[in-house]
Amino acid sequence: MNSPASRLTDWNELSLERFPPKADRPVIVRVPEADPEEETISERYATGDHRSVEVRSILDIPQWEQARWIGVMLGLQHDLPIVGLHFEDREAGRQIFERWRERFGARDAKGAIHIAILRELPGRPPSHYAVLLMAGTEPGDFAGTLVSMPSRLKLLEPAADTNLRFFLDNYPAGGSFILVPTYVKENGEPDLMMDLAILKHDLSIRRVADIGKSDLEIIGVQLLEQMEARDGSPP
Predict the structure, then answer these.
(1) In 3D, which of 67, 69, 71 has the Cα closest to residue 10?
(2) Among 11, 49, 94, 208, which is least packed by CB within 10 angstroms?
(3) Distance between CA atoms of residues 163 and 73, nearest Å
(4) Cβ of 141: how many Cβ atoms within 10 Å?
């Protein structure tokens, strides 16, 4: 790995967080976590009050609970940027990526998996950032429609922004990157499961102050606000 993010000490971990529902544009409604993953990216169904709900999901909630996403690795391999999702349960993490490759292929050409790095978090040190995972779509596609978009957000709190700056300096705007499951071995070295890598072309890198109410990343902003309200003001 041509990256400073290659040791266990470079990982930043936080307990898994979830997106709470809020009335906004588009309207986001929560899917109960016991519900299984939808078999297609988008599926419409009727609710008890006869309103239609558009479901967009890339997450098998029980599988993610089992895998326990606890960190993110940013680095380079053969000059290609890598985003590693670090799972505590190696086999469950592999199963998540196996399922993604079955659904979206080894190259996610349509951007079905949306990944965003949120920077300059309000009230937090410049080194802190968050990574948002959810289905890829444009909120404007759902004007006037109730939408359910299960998501995951990981807050990273490193003391320095060395790894993040290294990654951003080597990631050209609109360029390609590799998404891969990772696991830390007993000797402390990261295990990049490159046999399950997914090539992507649409990494979103956003300053929180620049995110508008119609942007997909507003979901991450809402979650960060809920975390602050729950836990108190950030350090």
Answers:
(1) 71
(2) 49
(3) 9
(4) 12
Omega before 26 cis (within 30°)? yes
Domain borders along the chain are 8-228
As separate numbers, helices (DSSP H) first and strands (DSSP E) second, the chain gives 4, 14
Helices (H), the chain: 61-67, 90-104, 162-169, 218-231
Determine the residue type at 165. R
- DSSP letter at 101 equals H
Output b/e per residue, 86-107; b: 16+ Cβ within 10 A.
Answer: bbbbbebbbbbbeebbeebeee
Q: How buried is residue 15: exposed, middle or buried, by Cβ count under 10 Å (0-12/13-18/19+)? A: exposed
Q: What is the pTM of this model?
A: 0.75
- From the centroid of its chain, how far is CA 61? 13
Measured CA to CA, the distance from residue 215 to residue 130 in angstroms comes to: 16
Nearest Cα residue to 199 out of 93, 132, 104: 104
Length of the chain: 235
Largest interatomic CA distance in the chain: 55
Q: Which residue has the tokens 């951003």?
A: 168
- State the Cα–Cα distance between residues 172 and 76, nearest whole angstrom: 13
- Render pLDDT for 19-73 as a digit per residue (tens, 0 to 9): 233 333 333 333 333 333 333 223 333 344 435 677 778 999 999 999 999 999 9
Q: How far apart are the first and last CA of the chain?
A: 32
Residue at 34: amino acid letter: A
